[in-house]
Amino acid sequence: MMYRKQKNEKDVLYILDHLREFDKKEVQAVHGDNWKEKVFEQIMQTDFDVLMGINSEGDVPVCMGGAWHLDKDEQGVGVVWMLCTDDISNHPITLLRELKKEFKKYDEQFWFLYNFMLAEDEQAKGWLKWMGFDFSMPRPKNLENIMPKGFEFFYRIRKPKGLE
């Protein structure tokens, strides 16, 4: 089950303490040794709700994510992100069904979504491809200084309304 809720310290810390190995490698590569404090602070200081996934046994978080606009980007461009625990592997159908709904909301706000990820994370790459993300664009010049080696750029362009 996934739902949108106001982020809280307990849920964010739980996920950061139980990250999938690939997600942990990503945040360590991007944020360095103090990754947990930096990511926690970044998530808690932003003004947005988080898409939160919980397991069927109760209110135990298995993933959190969202999309936001960075000041450096033009209007309508957003960065999409998700951090998961290992338990997300037990809920792939629910995850994809809920992400499909979530991306309908993102499509109202963003015509272009992007980020970068560990190239070796085939599970997340599969989810992203299913959601319509593309991996064919080479490393964008403006991300060369922040995208670590071994990472891959991905993006999604909103389909024009009324055209299928």
Characteristics:
alpha+beta; 5 helices; globular; 164 residues; six-stranded mixed beta sheet
Could you describe the 3D structure shown?
This protein is an alpha+beta fold and 164 residues long. Helix content is 35%, strand content 24%. The protein has a six-stranded mixed sheet, with helices on both faces. The model has no long low-confidence stretch (mean pLDDT 85).
Produce a short descriptive summary:
It contains 5 helices and 6 strands, in the order βαααβββαβαβ.
Please give the count of helices. 5
Envelope shape: globular
Q: What strand line-up does the widest sheet have?
A: 1-2-3-4-5-6
Which percent band covers the strand fraction?
15-25%
Give the tally of structural domains. Answer: 1
The helix/strand order is EHHHEEEHEHE
The share of residues in helices is 25-40%
Give the secondary structure arrangement, pairings included.
Layout: E1 2-5, H1 9-17, H2 21-31, H3 35-45, E2 50-54, E3 61-68, E4 77-84, H4 92-109, E5 112-118, H5 122-130, E6 151-157
Parallel strand pairs: 4-5
Antiparallel strand pairs: 1-2, 2-3, 3-4, 5-6
